[in-house]
């Protein structure tokens, strides 16, 4: 395939730690293989060249300030396909915690009596501002899933992330459930696709891939009750990655 026909891929970051882009800079031979069919034309974290002509765009990070909103709308107007990349972009991620506080409260917590110089804005997942075509979840994203999704998108098949729980992948790995080990886990209501990354290393799932579209909340409550926990035990874990969605549901 000649360079002219290659799909031009661009990465853009907003409010986030850039950890998902960083994941992609780790040597991944499958990803390098994709470069036969596409070229990366904008990737601030890994190259200095930058082009405003692109087809497939990965947007990492939450949209916070009016300036971010204008910028992502411009990106959307150029891109043929837009992928929300990583938890901050897909669900608001940990930035959603900012929604617990008013501007003044956030200012007090972060700056105390130092000057308030940064415009904080209000965290929103990308789909609350522009149309998103596909989602690649995770904090950070998983390179194997990214390669699978890009291949599928390039073939015109699109990409739909799994909509079953992390528990399913955890069971396939034959892990002993962490509830049996006295830990509280978000796996029963969290979207799979990471291969039970954390729970396979004896760390509980914090729900970084977001809630399932139809989470089995009652089942999760039953598991909690069986092990002597209440919803309050889980509140912090729910909020950590899912604050934007929980708030949107609360506000109807
Ligand atoms: S609750 Fe957590 S540890 Fe238990 S099976 Fe589900 S994902 Fe695995
Ligand atoms: S186990 Fe949970 S917290 Fe860990 S990567 Fe998977 S979804 Fe994210």
The percentage of residues in β strands lies in 5-15%
Percent helix range: 25-40%
Mean pLDDT: 90
* Structural class by helix and strand composition: alpha/beta
What would the CATH topology of the largest domain be? Rossmann fold
**Straight-line N-to-C gap:** 49 Å
Tell me the Rg in angstroms: 19 Å
Q: What topology, given as strand order, has the largest sheet? A: 2-1-3-4-5
Low-confidence blocks of residues: none
Pattern of helices and strands: EHHEEHEHHEHHHH
| Assigned CATH class of the largest domain | Alpha Beta
Shape: globular
By DSSP (H or I, 4+ residues per run), the number of helices equals: 9
Number of domains: 2
Word description of this protein:
The protein is 35% helix and 10% strand. With 252 residues, the chain is α/β, with parallel strands linked by helices. It folds into two domains: 152 residues, Rossmann fold (3-Layer(aba) Sandwich), CATH 3.40.50; 85 residues, no CATH class. The mean pLDDT is 90. Bound molecules: iron/sulfur cluster (2 copies).
């Amino acid at each position: 395939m000649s360079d002219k026909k290659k799909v031009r891929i661009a990465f853009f970051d907003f409010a986030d730690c850039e950890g998902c882009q960083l994941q992609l800079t780790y040597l991944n031979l499958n990803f390098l293989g994709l470069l036969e069919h596409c070229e990366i034309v904008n990737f601030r974290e890994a190259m200095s060249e930058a082009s405003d002509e692109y087809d497939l765009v990965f947007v990492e990070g939450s949209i916070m300030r009016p300036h971010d909103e204008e910028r992502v709308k411009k990106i959307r107007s150029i891109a043929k396909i837009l992928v929300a990349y990583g938890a901050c972009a897909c669900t608001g991620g940990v930035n959603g915690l900012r929604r617990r506080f008013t501007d003044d409260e956030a200012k007090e917590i972060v700056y105390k009596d130092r000057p308030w110089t940064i415009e904080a804005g209000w965290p929103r997942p990308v789909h609350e501002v522009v149309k998103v075509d596909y989602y690649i979840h995770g904090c950070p994203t998983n390179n194997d899933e990214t390669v699978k999704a890009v291949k599928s998108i390039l073939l015109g098949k699109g990409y739909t992330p799994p909509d079953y729980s992390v528990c399913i992948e955890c069971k396939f790995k034959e892990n002993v459930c962490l509830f049996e080990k006295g830990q509280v886990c978000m796996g029963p209501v969290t979207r799979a696709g990471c291969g039970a990354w954390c729970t396979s290393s004896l760390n509980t799932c914090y729900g970084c891939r977001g809630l399932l579209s139809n989470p089995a909340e009652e089942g999760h409550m039953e598991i909690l009750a069986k092990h002597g926990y209440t919803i309050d035990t889980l509140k912090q874990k729910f909020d950590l990655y899912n604050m934007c969605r929980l708030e949107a549901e609360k506000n109807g």
